[in-house]
Design goal:
single chain, 273 residues, mainly alpha
Length: 273
């Protein structure tokens, strides 16, 4: 949800932001109204805050400081990742405050919950949800725009493209099958999960940040499919490491995508001339 929330704020024009707030607020009101008697009025107030209200001022601040999220005609991923971290921090503060209110209201009947651990869980969960989703949606936007201009057909017909895509899909399916067949655990399973980043790096080096962003979402899906119990901490550790590596790959892919676009523009100019 965190990634979709930030992507909606970035992609939807500002005049439609009130509709986004209402859309997120409506189910929260129902949840808070049902559980207010159990967790108290303070929790109901904090739990009814749409987190888009937390993220929107941060996006507005970034836009006032300069072109955001686009710069020189392309998405500026460092600023997007920085805003994502700020939004994750603000959302984690609100969620932790609501959790604290719920604990105070149910004192003596709730299990032991450590707010510091919960805060870090909210923070990492939100940030790890934003890193793969937001760039991937912008990459899809670029793909659709290229499809209108016919550029996607040229990319699709490149043999290396088909080979890389097939290799990635085969690799991710192989990760799931190996884990299911060998019943790996511990360090062996973690190493297998991190191998899912190899196709991400390959597509980043080939297509730039767009390839890495789209591949990263599929890689995380493959890794999440290897999760065992719902309390499996190792899957969270793998997800955090992959998101950090993915953020680095996206930054590396920016100049690659820029050079690819410049070469394509040069060929178009030469053909037209």
């Amino acid at each position: 949800m965190a990634g979709l929330r930030l992507a909606a704020i970035l992609l939807v024009p500002r005049r439609y932001w009130p509709a986004l707030i209402v859309g997120e607020w409506a189910p929260l009101i129902q949840k808070c109204a049902i559980n207010a008697g159990r967790f108290g009025l303070e929790w109901a107030i904090l739990g009814g805050i749409p987190l888009m209200i937390v993220c929107m001022p941060l996006v507005m601040l970034a836009r006032r400081r300069g072109p955001f999220p686009f710069r020189d005609g392309e998405i500026h991923l460092p600023s997007v990742l920085l805003v994502a971290a700020a939004c994750a921090l603000g959302s984690a503060v609100v969620d932790t405050a609501g959790l604290s209110a719920a604990i105070d209201a149910s004192r003596g009947t709730s299990p032991t919950i450590y707010l510091r651990d919960s805060f870090y869980a909210y923070l990492l969960g939100d940030f790890c949800g934003m890193v793969p989703v937001v760039p991937a949606l912008f990459a899809l936007k670029d793909v659709f725009n290229a499809g209108r201009s016919g550029a996607w057909r040229r990319v699709r017909n490149i043999p290396l493209t088909s080979a890389l895509v097939a290799l990635c899909l085969a690799g991710w399916i192989g990760i799931v099958l190996i884990q299911e067949r060998l019943h790996l655990h511990g360090a062996e399973l973690q190493a297998l999960r991190l191998c899912a980043m190899l196709p991400v790096l390959a597509l980043t080096l080939r297509f730039g940040w767009q390839g890495g962003a789209l591949a990263g979402v599929l890689a995380l899906a493959a890794v999440m499919s290897t999760a065992g119990e719902s309390t499996d901490v190792s899957i969270i550790e793998a997800q955090v490491v992959m998101c950090i590596a993915m953020a680095g790959a996206l930054l590396i892919g920016m100049p690659i995508a820029r050079r690819t676009r410049e070469r394509h523009a040069g060929r178009v100019t030469a053909t037209a001339g």
